[in-house]
Amino acid sequence: MSSAMIERIVNAVFETLYMVILSGFIGTVLGVAMGVALYITRRGNFLERPLFNRVLSIIVNIGRSVPFIILALAIVPFTQLLVGTFIGNTAAVVPLTLAAIPFVARLVEGALLEVPDGLIEAAQAMGATPQQIIFRVLLPEAAAGIITAITVTFISLIGYSAMAGGIGAGGLGAVAINYGYNRYDTGVMLITVIIMIVMVQGIQTLGDRLVRRAQHR
């Protein structure tokens, strides 16, 4: 393998990390907020808003049901309006983030549903405000489940970023397609796959350690 190809692959690794980390961070922040909103506005909860919850739930379901490739192509005008272009790594962050938000939201909602109702009732009995219940009871108690949700999301984003490489983004996906598949170079394709497997394994290992810490608190 030439030194130019090695350099290209190294650059692709950093491009992939850039897309995954940035979209994962933004998607996590907004997704956790949306997941909390889904939970606290459910019927019977302390900020019950049935209509709002139903509308938000439909939006999340729609976001989760659209395949990433279709989503990325469908929002090209929005991406171009937001970042000034619809190709490149920064442009790919937009659909990656939009794909991550509903995914995180539903997983976070599921984690919050595992929190015992008795803890919330006890907090309310002691006069805790909704904000205190969210940040001192719900999120700490569901921390392990939320970390698992974030871990799964980041791993999924690695796969999505590879798809984005086929529609104008950079990263390992673009290298695999342009220099591996199109040029029938199985060596390049194999290396990109191995690197992505290592990335997934690294994220999963880190996530597992954080989950164990959260469970032992």
Plain-language structure description:
It is a single chain. With 217 residues, the chain is mostly helical. The chain has a single domain (3-215), classed as MetI-like (MetI-like fold, Orthogonal Bundle). Helix content is 82%, strand content 0%. The chain has ten helices and no strands. The model has no long low-confidence stretch (mean pLDDT 93). The chain crosses the membrane at residues 17-39, 51-75, 81-105, 142-167, 187-207. InterPro entries: AA_ABC_Transporter_Permease, MetI-like, MetI-like_sf. Belongs to the binding-protein-dependent transport system permease family. CysTW subfamily.
Structural class: mainly alpha
Distance between the termini: 49 Å
Average pLDDT number: 93
Strand count, sense and barrel status of the largest sheet are: none
Can you say what the CATH homologous superfamily is?
A: MetI-like
H/E element sequence: HHHHHHHHHH
Strand content: under 5%
Identify the overall geometry. elongated
The residue fraction in helices comes out at over 70%
- CATH first level: Mainly Alpha
C-alpha-based Rg, rounded: 20 Å
Multimeric state: single chain
Weakly predicted, low-confidence segments:
none
Brief summary of the model shown:
The protein is mainly α.
Any chance you could write out the topology, listing elements then pairs?
Blueprint: H1 3-40, H2 50-65, H3 68-74, H4 76-83, H5 89-113, H6 117-125, H7 130-141, H8 143-164, H9 171-181, H10 186-215
Helix pairs in contact: 1-5, 1-8, 1-9, 2-5, 4-5, 5-8, 6-7, 8-9, 8-10, 9-10
